[in-house]
């Protein structure tokens, strides 16, 4: 093994050790439990807000297609239940501004406000923003995320039509379903990464001139995709929640999935926090000329 490989392995091991130490020190698992509680309470209000947004668009019946597409990213065992509940709650909602909708937005904002608290903890910064400022930021992020989801749906729909057109003009050489799945995966992953970067940049009470969020965001996207696939396999082949809890088993699976997702999101923040500290120590210990060049990079 060369010296460069040896140093890389040592640095990777030290980085992994620091991440795990910080995960334990910040009680990421406890923070994730608190976040998942608020996310469970906020996920249905968020989808109702999306239904109100879609209701303002000049497309008849668009909400059913959007909701079916969104539920594809939930655990397979809960997709039908989530669709039926949300679609039933949003039937007949066409007006955007209403007293009920304002309450729904505030309920959905609680999930993002708990994310603020969790990211402040992993970045080791106190919360100095007032309640109204934090609430306003959470509400703004709700609409940003909703618009990103709608844009993603539009891109995926357009991509599916292009895929089918290519398949129809390629004499069977191109497999349209496979191409559509790849298009949906790449588009969704890219937009999810962009949305996570926005949240990671704005949620914590941290001012950074040049935030480096790519490593943590990349970890979140990859880990979430892998964990969701593994969770689906476990729920379908190994678990017996339906036999044990009946209909409530679907809610149990949904809550566990949201808890795992919360752990992944906070761990992504921990990764960025540890990397920032390590880069700071490298600059502090480097000669002045090297430090200057590193800061300018």
Explain what the structure shows.
With 297 residues, the chain is mainly alpha-helical. The chain has one domain. 81% of the residues lie in helices and 0% in strands. The chain contains 11 helices and no strands. The protein has helices spanning 3-25, 28-55, 62-71, 76-90, 99-122, 131-168, 176-202, 214-237, 241-245, 248-285, 288-296. Helix 6 packs antiparallel against helix 7. The two termini are 30 Å apart.
Characteristics:
disordered C terminus, about 0% strand, about 80% helix, about 300 residues, mainly alpha
Count of helical regions: 11
- Inertia-based shape: globular
- Backbone structural class: mainly alpha
Q: What is the residue-averaged pLDDT?
A: 78
Distance between the termini: 30 Å
What is this entry, summarized?
This protein is mainly alpha-helical. Helices cover 81% and strands 0% of the residues.
Task: Lay out the secondary structure.
Elements: H1 3-25, H2 28-55, H3 62-71, H4 76-90, H5 99-122, H6 131-168, H7 176-202, H8 214-237, H9 241-245, H10 248-285, H11 288-296
Helix pairs in contact: 1-10, 2-4, 2-5, 2-6, 2-10, 3-4, 5-6, 5-10, 6-7, 7-8, 8-10, 10-11
